[in-house]
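The aim of this short unit is practical: by the end, you should be able to scan a pair of folded records and say something sensible about each. We start with the first protein, listed as its amino acid sequence and then its structure tokens.
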Amino acid sequence: MRYQISGKQIDVGAALQTHVQTELNEVVSKYAQRPTDAQVVFSKSAHEYVCEATVHLSTGLTATARAHATEIYASFDLCCDKMEKQLRRYKRRLKDHHQDRSEPVELLGASSYILASEEHETDAEPESLQPIIVAEMETKIPSLSVGEAVMQMELAGAPVLVFRNEGKDGLNVVYRRDDGNIGWIDP
């Protein structure tokens, strides 16, 4: 597994890198068969250290965890505990669904746009109805079952996930509702 350990305006020493590789490798190898790479980023927010970890699995799914503490090692240990909990749930769900994906998730390319927010005065009329595009990026849309899409959304900690439904070959959306349940849009 490849590791990318970095810090945002923080010097990450060799001892911390060794600790991260050892602990993360132990957690990931326990619950995931073929992890491909892991990215760990340390940063500082006021008086606390923040650790963000992302592990990409060969199945195409991604697990993300984030934690903060007053000590840098403690922030990583909390983050690692969250990652272990997510991977344990992921493995349990795979067993519960009796579904072990043998091939990687197929990804479709798509364009993603960031639109400028319009802050107009209450009396001013907008010049046009066309939004201003701030950035255009390439994004990937995975081909998943509905259960895998919900699992991927929860692993990534995302509020919404667009995916191609393997069963029907159409684009679908799963999202977290305000009441805590999961919504599924199947056009």
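Turning to the second protein, read its sequence before its tokens, just as you did above.
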Amino acid sequence: MQIYWTKINKIIEETPEVKTYLLDCPENFTWEEGSHTHFAFEGFNAGDKPNRSLIRHMSISTLPNEKSIGITTRIREQCSEFKTILRNLEVGNEVAIFKTHSNVPLKRENKNVYLLSSGVGLATFRPLVLEYVERADNVNQIHSLNIDSSKDFLFTNVFKSAPEKKFTSQFVDNRQDYYLEVEKLAADKDGLFYVVGSDEFLMDNIKVLHEQGIKPEHIMLDKHEQQLPGFLSFDVSL
């Protein structure tokens, strides 16, 4: 396993609770849209075993052509040890990234794509939208639906409807409106539904999509392949 040590080159305050940390791109480090990485602080590998409290699984919110690795996360007033350390980091501080992989690259299968997300989960989808806007080959259209009860919606400069690009973006601030919209979108039985958020959010969306007749193979989750059956088995617990 290769560990890349790199420096923070910019910190962007997206909203009062959400920050994006832009990291220098290490030599030979590559990734694609929908990627996640393991993001760690100094000392995480100092002992016999990795200190897991200093490591988090994070989505990369940028594309390689942006020349920085973006890590976007919510940091609340009361937060974990990891988030407390992160909140106190400054430009020039060093962090580690390793085990980078994409479970949700943009599928180009001549279908409509629906991006369903909660809050900062939108960070996973930002690169997919940028990739699509840059090159729409074999994607009919994309619709993004995001729920954020804080009403501080993220990346509104990217997630703005562009009819000429066949891209629509929708934000809602409550569950009732959100799931009504999901039901409407699920009228497209041939569409591809990408879902990003907490495990509870995933299960709730999968249940609604299943009830609307969407097949498991049309639901894309940011999970490793071996984890998917636990979410997409459609058993009675749903």
